[in-house]
Please model this.
Amino acid sequence: MKSAEPLPNATYVAFRLTDDQEQILDAADKFARRELHPLQQRMDDEEWWPPQLMPSLGTVGFLGVTAPSRFGGSDGDFFTSGLIAQGLARWNPAAALSHIAHDNLCLNNIARNGNEDQKRKYLPGLCDGSKVGALALTEPGAGSDALGSMATTARREGDFFILNGRKLFITNGPVADLVLVYAKTDRARGAKGISAFIVEKGFEGFSVAQKLDKMGFRGSPTGELVFDDCKVPAENLVGLENMGVAVVMSGLDLERAIVAMLNVGMAERALDLAIEYANTRQQFGKRIAEFQLVRGKIAEMYVGVETAKTFCYRVLAEANALEQGGGGRGEIHKLTAASILYAAETCSRVCNDAVQIFGGMGYMRETEVNRLYRAAKLLEIGAGTTEIRKLIISQELLGN
Model:
């Protein structure tokens, strides 16, 4: 069989980051290594929230990447925010998780869906890190079925909406200055009767019921929020009443694409730690890196990291074009679910293999590889479980 002849004057483009993108990732990596990595141990030991975290991220321009510059943002794109998440996750996954909850789930949602007055009021503080943001969707009885089983309600009374209900497993909840909250404004319409609201920490009837004690991502505070006849000004309704499902679904697709990058950064770090340990740990008179079983494991870890990275970059680029109100259906819905499905399973496998290479030391709670291992499991649960991700993919492929 005759081999194909190359096309004359053909240009072959490598699937890799541009120089500018590499510089962004490198800047996030260096910042996280210098400023965030030293915080890991205390955050993990004490579930300690470093109060300087958001202001420091704002100072270096890692907050409000996708927000307009007139509100303190960078006029950047979604891909850039994904690279920042990847770089931060290498050195402090808990800080990276809180960054995503603040910058993507809250700030970016308001920037995409809020009106001019809301953006003017809330974005500057979120962009400079003087205010901490969160998003509240999940409830005690509404996890995977977050929309259909939502019990939190909001009713209009004059110039206010009155919210009642509870939200659970809310990242940044215990420290948030403002929370983007979803509630049912028309129970009869089910998931199509949901609205979105910006709730400030000091609003009457809003409180933090408890701060939760987690297995991993410790130091990124997670809590239960209570709304007991909480009075929210009508001007804090985001978008139209009963039209919050569009805000939710668009946000969930972007969330999955960005959380996938958290997996990539963590898996990269686990691989680096495994290589370093294999090259220094000696048994039977030689480095364990010289044993074929260890070498094979490291090779498989590398392939997983690189394939996840390539796929997630592709999906980030696709998500850049997501129009306002878009998502929750079609190709992007399938792709974002697929990227986080693959990235999370890969991250768990790579972290598991890294602990195996570390042996007994990997089982010790104070080691960095152990922190990665404990954190990785959440990424198969949060932002839609592995099972929900598979349902989304299959529904888009096979039809509902």
Q: What stands out?
A: The first helix runs from residue 19 to 36. The CA atoms of residues 3 and 9 lie 18 Å apart. The chain has eleven helices and ten strands.
